[in-house]
TrEMBL record:
Pfam families: AAA_16, BTAD, Trans_reg_C. SMART domains: BTAD, Trans_reg_C. InterPro entries: AAA_16, AfsR-DnrI-RedD_regulator, BTAD, OmpR/PhoB-type_DNA-bd, P-loop_NTPase, Sig_transdc_resp-reg_C-effctor, TPR-like_helical_dom_sf, WH-like_DNA-bd_sf. The gene is embR_2. Residues 1-98 form the OmpR/PhoB-type domain. Residues 1-98 bind DNA. This is Transcriptional regulatory protein EmbR. It comes from the Bacteria. Residues 243-262, 268-348, 851-964 are annotated as: Disordered. Keywords: DNA-binding, Transcription, Transcription regulation. Gene3D superfamilies: Tetratricopeptide repeat domain (1.25.40.10), Winged helix-like DNA-binding domain superfamily/Winged helix DNA-binding domain (1.10.10.10). PANTHER family: TRANSCRIPTIONAL REGULATOR REDD, TRANSCRIPTIONAL REGULATOR REDD-RELATED.
């Protein structure tokens, strides 16, 4: 017998004799297969894991050698050429075929499962725990592929120990229970179940005071380590002990949920209640290091353990595409299911009927899908769990043609027969389909039986665009909550199953709504999704979100040889040799098998393996060749039309007569290529059929077909706007361009009604591609629409490019320029332009527009001369003629005029500027003018619905004689102007923002007021400059008018104000509130902004590794969004280097860093070069640095410059830097006012500068220690 041990030293024994397993990689092959728990591990995954993604040229040959050697070691008596029995080949890779008792980790899991149902589980648990002789997979602990399995086994071990304590309590052995529970809390202080059991054991021993002390210790540990209060189980137990109503120790607690919430594991406790079974997955891992390496159902496949208290998301493993293809194409012997899955859900059909039938009301036997009894049983088991009252999610994955849709259809049929409500939606492959179409399709089926109350679901249940759109984030949040609340209510009297097929084609709106299942209230509701595992990149985030629900994951592999034979028999049968050839060549793919058999039936017997077509598309082409050419032409037209099309549309669009079209459709149905989903409609039996038909068409022919289909659909079904938009866009002719634009805009309106802003962006982009160049007004209007959709979708980089494109097209037409500059109506967390740049042409144009009198004669404002205007920080002004007014005193001394941006008092923010522009209203309404400049936008051509120009809208009238529209336009121009100059130090930017606020307040337009206030808030970067008042106004405005983006901005600005005031508690509290808002309302830019803030706070608290991980996640998301500011990652890297004392290491990467973000990096690199003792290079880099803008990164860049200057003993430069930093001596740590990075306290730098200058320094150092203590940053003491 072969025995493998991985719970400690990795060893193997054959017949009781230890055998050497060879070198590290050969041993790793066997360990990988053990971690897979019997599942097939694909060859490419093995190669990738063994060589960490960098395999040598002959990696496959080496792998084969390792496998051959291991087979000889494990089966020394195997006859030559006899197939291996233990380490077997199973396409597309290898698997271990061993009983549970042969592998200590497998045996351990089996013993824990058995203990759960034992009357006295202590013997079984003692035996299980005795198998551990060290960490699991110890020699591979650093390998990424091992981490999920190591974490799973560690969780299971902890649960087993908790079960052991609970069993001792039930048996009355309190002495043993007290001792073991104490060890539990010592080993894993962040698992609440250990504390609960320890308190129970002490109370049962008559030591009530000690039990309460233990609970107080638990509360302290959780608060100190995680900042959390104890969960309900500990809270209730404490109350019970105090009142003398201690529960029976055998009563299940709620610790599983408490531990899960606090350790990042979906199931990590609940030992008394049998929580161990929830930790141990009974389904196999698909692939080590892949999506499901940990647990197929537990959702706890994270790289951290429960002991660490790490709340790492399971998305790193479970959120990926599951790599269901790891078993696809496999023609396994026996059951068509993977062996471990069969073991988990296996047994005879009658056994499975008994297991699932009681809960669901229907058995498995007699399944209508060949070879899928095991998988169907698993799904029926999930349905039974859902029927018990808990929302359950199941995910079916596999390659194209593997039988996902058939399995979902059979499950739906069974559940409907058992009295369930069922609804099915399918994600269409067509890019022009309505957003969230799968949900719309399914929900309309539910609504036909259970109409929803009110009109909250109208965006999904109706295809008519709504003229009124509230705040996008609010409305989307409400819509999603309404959907899940309604589904829960609909399942109240009869359980409900919702099936979503082809999720690999899902659009963002579909996935966003599916994400809501993670937090939806429990109800008798089953949600089943199916997708192609090898095309599921877009599902990564959704799978991560759903992991908290521990979904059932079913990877479908190829059918077994017996199942293939059964399938072939259903198509007319074949001899054994043909069946064997089909099974081998098709990999057991049911669709491929059926099509091959149908081809065989039409062409004659296939007598040799070589005669079986190589691919399913070749099979389909040969089958199509058997049909008459006119019929094929109609089928190709149907393929271009879409997945599901009306027959009368095909008749109208075809070149043939009605009878010929109907004959062609009949031929397709009889051949099994088409289906009839409803009377008068046809669809394709499989997406592969449609794909094959369209792939062989030239682009020219496809375009002409789209034109004919669009014309036919316009006559027959004019309300199908998304399909009309798709056809006319794809037609690509001058004759269809006008309709392509018109329908694309209408489809975009529908998309925005469903809060599918990404879809709206695609549609409007297509409309622009179709638009002629004749009318610049229509072009600009359409670009403005696109810009608004892009900002709502969070793609600010694209929005900026669209704005610039609109400005260029506007030329010298002021009405179009105003439309372009005022189209940006959404508050954004980051600057609208790349950091450190100013578009001088846009600034000049906006100044001219603001200075232009209105048509009624109201004078404009000249923002060109701001010499005497107040600075954004409240200090004296600077000339705007020098690169948009960047101050010199904040950067290199003497590089620009004036250094009055810093006072000598250390606490005062300076005095306000005098004079200034005479119409710049100050906060509170002082100094404002009654005039409003600018002109209204163009009225547009009206050619496409809603594509007219951006005329001023809303607002109050009568401001100083100007119309309300004029005032709105002027306010928007002012905010646009201020946004262009934000952070540059140009005093006119703040003047413009303040005037915009005054106008917006008078108009009473909450959206305009929010936009102007957010612009003004961005200008305030100094302590005691009024940011807290503006932030509070924004937060209140967001609450009052239900504007989550505005509420978020206000809350985040309150965090920034607290940081500027040196209030760490307020900063942390407000940042956490902002993070919650961003996540709740799914605001992408806000999420990344709060992510950087949380990372900066981690740096301040000395949690450098946590900060590095968080920064990396945020940077990845920003790159995915195409953010203008993704380069901030290098700033974060530099801040961490300072905190860790490794700044000198950046010197080696100076060329790479400078190439990435240019001169902005000069001060950072100068500090790094100085720290690396490369003074000449450091001085050269200092000279290359541009002036430091007085914005939210002022103290960050100035501190870096100071670090270099101090090291280089540059006294002249030190004087200017000392004066520049002095006003920030008692605020946040350097850079933290940006809420994105953090360096040491400013007074620390001031002290070192003072020492260099021969000035008193001790007061600064005392203040630096006080700041460090206030921010709980001992590394800065």
């Amino acid at each position: 017998m072969v025995v493998l041990t991985v719970l400690g030293t990795f060893e193997a024994a054959v017949g009781g004799t230890p055998v050497p397993l060879g070198g590290p990689r050969q041993r790793a092959v066997l360990a990988l297969l053990v971690a897979a728990r019997g599942a097939v591990v694909p060859v490419d995954r093995l190669v990738d894991d063994l060589w960490r993604g960098e395999p040598p040229a002959k990696a496959l040959a080496s792998l084969q050698a390792y496998v051959s050697n291991l087979r000889r070691l494990l089966e020394p008596d195997r006859p030559p050429r006899a197939p291996a029995r233990l380490l077997v080949s199973a396409p597309p890779g290898y698997a271990l075929r061993l009983p549970d008792d042969a592998v200590d980790a497998w045996r351990f899991a089996a013993l824990v499962r058995a203990a759960r149902d034992a009357e006295d589980p202590r013997r079984l648990l003692d035996e299980a725990l005795s198998l551990w002789h060290g960490p699991a997979f110890a020699e591979a602990a650093d390998e990424p592929w091992a981490a999920p399995e190591v974490a799973r086994l560690a969780d299971l071990r902890s649960a087993a120990r908790e079960l052991r304590v609970a069993a001792a309590l039930r048996a009355g052995d309190t002495t043993d229970a007290v001792a073991e529970a104490a060890r539990l809390t010592e080993d894993e202080p962040l698992r609440e179940e250990g504390w609960r059991l320890r308190a129970l054991a002490l109370d049962a021993s008559g030591r009530r005071a000690d039990a309460l002390a233990v609970l107080r210790s638990a509360r302290r540990v959780l608060a100190d380590e995680l900042g959390l209060d104890p969960g309900p189980a500990l809270t209730h137990l404490e109350q019970a002990i105090l009142t003398g109503t201690t529960p029976d120790p055998a009563t299940p607690g709620n610790a599983a949920q408490g531990n899960a919430a606090r350790s990042g594991n979906a199931h990590c406790g609940g030992a008394v209640g049998g929580g161990a079974d929830s930790v141990e997955s009974t389904a196999p891992a698909t692939t080590p290091g892949g999506a499901q390496s940990g647990s197929a159902q537990s959702g706890s496949a994270q790289s951290g353990s429960a002991q660490s208290g790490s709340a790492q998301s399971g998305s790193a493993q479970s959120g990926s595409a599951q790599s269901g293809s790891a078993q696809s194409g496999s023609a396994q012997s026996g059951s068509g299911a993977p062996p471990a899955l069969a073991a988990a859900y296996g047994g005879s059909a009658s056994d499975r009927d008994g297991a699932y039938g009681g809960a669901v009301g229907v058995g498995v036997a007699g399944s209508g899908v060949v070879g899928r009894d095991v998988e169907l049983g698993a799904l029926l088991g999930a349905a039974g769990d859902a029927r018990g009252g808990g929302l359950r999610i199941a995910l079916v994955m596999g390659e194209a043609g593997i039988g996902k849709s058939a399995l979902l259809g059979e499950l739906a049929r069974r559940l409907a027969a058992a009295g369930w409500r069922t609804a099915t939606g399918r994600c269409p492959e067509d890019a022009g389909a309505p957003p969230a179409w799968a949900w719309a399709e399914a929900l309309r089926q539910v609504a036909a039986d259970v109409p929803p109350p009110g009109d909250a679901l109208d965006p999904l249940l109706s295809d008519t665009p709504r003229p009124d759109r509230s705040d996008a984030a609010t409305a989307r949040f409400r819509l999603h909550r309404a959907v899940w609340a309604w589904l829960g209510a609909a399942a109240g009297d009869r359980p409900l199953a919702v099936f979503l097929d082809d999720l690999h084609w899902a659009d963002p709106a579909t996935l966003a709504l599916l994400d809501g299942a993670a937090t939806a209230p429990d109800a008798p509701l089953l949600v089943v999704g199916a997708f192609r595992a090898d095309e599921s990149e877009r599902l990564t985030g959704t799978l991560a979100a759903l992991a908290r629900r521990s979904p059932l994951r079913l990877p479908l592999s190829g059918l077994s040889a017996d199942a293939v034979a059964e399938l072939v028999a259903g198509e007319g049968g074949a001899d054994d040799a043909t069946v064997a050839a089909l099974a081998e060549r098709t990999g057991g793919n049911p669709f491929y098998v059926r099509e091959s058999v149908r081809l065989r039936n039409s062409e004659g017997a296939l007598v040799a393996l070589s005669e079986v077509p190589e691919g399913v598309r070749d099979v389909l082409r040969r089958r199509l060749a058997r049909l008459p050419e006119p019929a094929v032409a109609v089928l190709r037209l149907a393929a271009v039309a879409g997945d599901d099309v009306r027959a009368d549309v095909l008749i109208e669009a075809a070149d043939a007569g009605e009878d010929a079209v109907l004959d062609a459709l009949d031929a397709g149905i009889l051949a099994g290529l088409l289906t009839e989903p409803a009377p008068g409609r046809v669809g394709f039996a499989h997406a592969l059929v449609r794909d094959t038909m369209t792939a062989d068409l030239s682009a020219l022919r496809r375009g002409r077909m789209h034109a004919r289909l669009g014309a036919a659909l316009e006559r027959i079904e004019p309300g199908d706007v998304p399909a009309l938009a798709r056809h006319f866009r794809a037609a690509g002719t001058a004759a269809t361009a006008d309709r392509a634009v018109r329908y694309a805009v209408r489809a975009a309106e529908l998309a925005e009604d469903r809060y599918a802003h990404e879809t709206a962006v695609d549609l409007l982009t297509g409309a622009l591609d179709s638009l002629s160049d004749d009318d610049p007004a229509e072009h600009v209007a359409l670009l403005c629409r696109l810009l608004r959709a892009q900002t709502r979708a969070g793609d600010l980089t694209a929005a900026r490019a669209t704005r610039d494109r609109a400005v260029a097209l506007a030329g010298d037409r002021d009405d179009l320029l105003i439309a372009a500059f005022t189209a940006w109506t959404e508050p954004t967390p980051w600057q609208r332009r790349p950091y450190g740049t100013v578009d001088e042409q846009s600034v000049a144009t906006l100044r001219r527009l603001l200075a232009t009198p209105t048509p009624n004669g109201t004078p404009g404002t000249n923002f060109g001369d701001t010499t005497s205007a107040g600075r954004p920080d409240g200090t004296g002004g600077t000339s705007s003629a020098d690169t948009a007014g960047r101050p010199g005193g904040a950067g290199r001394p003497g590089s620009a005029d004036g250094t009055d941006n810093a006072d000598d008092t250390g606490g005062s923010g300076g005095t306000g500027g005098t004079g200034g522009t005479d119409n710049a209203g100050r906060p509170g309404g002082a100094g404002g003018t009654n005039s409003a400049g600018g002109t209204s936008g163009t009225s547009g051509t009206g050619r496409a619905s809603g594509t007219g120009g951006a005329s001023g809208t809303g607002g109050a009238s009568g401001t100083g004689g100007a119309s309300g529209a004029d005032v709105v336009t002027r306010a928007r121009l002012l905010t646009a102007y201020a946004a262009e100059l934000a952070g540059t130090g140009d005093a006119s930017a703040r003047a413009a923002a303040e005037e915009a606020v005054v106008l917006a307040r008078r108009l009473g337009d909450p959206a305009l007021r929010a936009l102007s206030l957010t612009t003004l808030a961005s200008e305030i970067v100094r302590p005691r400059s009024g940011l807290d008042a503006i932030a509070s106004e924004l937060a209140d405005l967001g609450v009052e008018h239900d504007l989550p983006a505005v509420r978020w901005f206000g809350t985040f600005s309150l965090a920034r104000a607290a940081a500027l005031a040196g209030d760490p508690d307020g900063t942390s509290r407000r940042t956490a509130e902002a993070a919650d808002l961003a996540a709740r309302y799914a605001m992408p830019e806000a999420t990344t902004a709060t992510g950087t803030a949380l990372a900066a706070l981690d740096v301040a608290a000395g949690r450098f590794d946590a900060a590095e991980r968080r920064y990396a996640r945020v940077a990845d998301e920003m790159r995915r969004q195409g953010s203008l500011h993704a380069g901030f990652e290098l700033l974060a890297r530099a801040s961490l280097a300072v905190a860790r004392g490794t700044l000198h290491e950046l010197a080696d990467d100076k060329d790479e860093i400078f190439a990435a973000i240019g001169p902005l990096s000069a001060n950072m690199l100068a500090a790094a070069l100085a720290a690396a003792d490369r003074p000449a290079e450091a001085r050269t880099m200092l000279a290359a640095a541009p002036p430091i803008a007085p914005d939210y990164l002022f103290t960050f860049f100035t501190t870096f410059r100071a670090l270099a200057v101090i090291t280089l003993n540059d006294r002249d430069e030190a004087k200017a830097l000392y004066k520049a930093l002095l006003p920030f001596h008692d605020s946040a740590p350097a850079g933290l006012e940006s809420m994105s990075v953090a360096l040491r306290p400013v007074p620390q730098t001031l002290g070192e500068l003072a020492r260099l200058l021969g000035r008193p320094d001790e007061a600064h150092f005392r203040e630096a220690r006080a700041v460090a203590e206030r921010w709980n940053a001992p590394h800065w003491h």
